[in-house]
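Teaching soon. Got one?

===
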Amino acid sequence: MSEKRKVDDAPGQLLQTDEELVEQYHGELPPTPGDDLAAALPESLSITVDLPPAPAPEVPAEEVAVAIDEVSVNPGHVEVSEPSTTSVDIVAPSTTSVDVAAPAPVVDNSLSRRDRLRGEHSSDPESAAMLTADRLLDVNRKTRPVPEGGWNRFVYTVTFKTLNLGDSAKVRARKEMDQRISKVFEGGARFVPILTRKGGVGKTTVTALLGMALADAREDRIIAIDANPDRGTLSERVNKQTRATVRDVVTKAPSIQGFTDFTTLVSRDETRLDILASDTDPLLSEAFDENDYNVVADLAARFYSIVLTDCGTGIVHSVMRATLQRADSIVIVSGGSVDEARLASETLTWLEANGYGDLVRNAIVALNTATQGTNLVKLEEIESHFQSRVREIVRIPYDPQLAAGSVVSYKDLKPLTKDAARTLASLVVEGLPTSRRDA
């Protein structure tokens, strides 16, 4: 059965069957309206349709690219053209050179143990001396040292080494002092002259005490040179092991190749302090001048860390000038009498007037209370005067060994005398530069 269909271009027209439509198409039926128009059309027909451009999609402002010339570019609208190769000149934006001073590098040579435990390290290379047992070993029952001190050690023993109270307060103070005296130096020897304008105030004795305290607590080498042109007596404070003097060092200087050669010319005491004697012949002692001292000092600087110089009372002597030019710190010795304290103060004034003000401000005054007249003056007033001019003052107490003026046995000194010598040594060391950069 044929299906009736509706002709779209003829509204209201009757429905036709498929057969009727075919017959009409082949001309068997009379033409319908519009057939003349269809006959006039060509077989192929091209129709051009102008369509409006598609609207560009909106792009969020944060996705819009910004070109170098600050013109917004819409990534959603792209003009397509025939592929071609085009050369484009790109001009780099001009830059302005600005000289900015680089900040100075920060050097920290004093990291604490807590900083090192957090993984921080010093920016400067560390020396081998920094690898101490205190730094590397964890403190526990096995590595903690045996306590020193009567009661603390007794408790440690009776508890079968399970209860360690640590060192006593006295022992801790001694070890702290040792640590202060044992300060490590880099960059050559340090020179410390001991001087005053008046003889007989114990300058040579103070030199020997200072040298022994340093040599007893430190691991490096300490030497005391008797540079007194008026027949010094420093070598008489230790047991002599040689008759050589500073004159022999000057004479044999070209043949001294190492420390072993130098040690044959010095005397060494029980604390390992080396002492180089002065000339014993008064006629030759006057010949020891600035040039001779420089020869001796240059050799001593090769083999020792700290060089003490026992100076004479002639402050204007040429040896004194050479001594002060090398000095890193000085010790001024004063007696306990009025005139001795005044002459010591005048020594400071002379140094300030001759360009050694820095040495004066860093100086240590050793106040020898074993001289005559000490019990008649107010030592507190003398100390108050020097405190306004120098860094520190140390009292040296009376000791029978020192009063005898002969060989000094460091281990047999009174505890108070030994403590004073160690205090003097620690203060002197604290005033010395750690490295030559700090000088």
The longest strand covers residues 190-195.
